[in-house]
Amino acid sequence: MLIGQSLGGMQAVKVLYELQGTFNDRIAVWDPYKDCAEARYSIVDPWSGRTRPVVGVSVSLASEVGAGGTAFVIPTQWNMLGRLRAIPDTVDEFVGFTILGDPIALTFSSADGASHNRASGAATVRNVTLPLGYNHVTVPVTHALALDPRARAWINDYVPNPARELRDPAEVDGANILWAAEVWFSIKKHWCLEAQQLIRARQTSRRSGDPAPASAPGSVTLL
Prior knowledge:
Elements: E1 2-5, H1 7-20, E2 30-31, E3 36-37, E4 42-44, E5 51-53, E6 59-65, E7 86-87, E8 91-99, E9 118-119, E10 124-130, H2 149-157, H3 177-208, E11 220-222
Parallel strand pairs: 1-6, 1-11, 6-8, 7-9, 8-10
Antiparallel strand pairs: 2-3, 4-5
């Protein structure tokens, strides 16, 4: 799972293009302990137990808030021009957030037009518009919500309703609670879907005699 804010949101989409092989035909495996690339370009697939290239790996969920806008002045991001809002097939579901009146992402009116994310293929793409008052810089600052039992309960019970305008709950006070609830709903959903996929893969491997998958893939946060 990739959850990105601001430039991190653009990087999350760029990772999807990297996995598609848009910029390179192979990707080296990264060693997180040594913080360097390894001399190999394939992994053992956690579902099948077979070796496969890194290029072509897909993620279950990716999300961005506040991506684009003034970030395009950075030369290293120019290769995302024309790509940022076109979501490739290396993700199952993509959720893009627009903050109304965001002078950094340059979204002043709605999620339509330049800030509207769309699938370039079969990926499921959902656009969410956050209300005025959400701040580009502080929108991911949500740790205080976990300390409030009422806020935690509201976030856990939250279910998106595309037919209803997003409004901060009157009965619960908490900064950035709508973004936190939307993201948490998606994370819970895809944790369950990935767990189901792992169970099915293990059942298939037992029937076929192949090595059983060890565990589900982890998640990465890009901020």
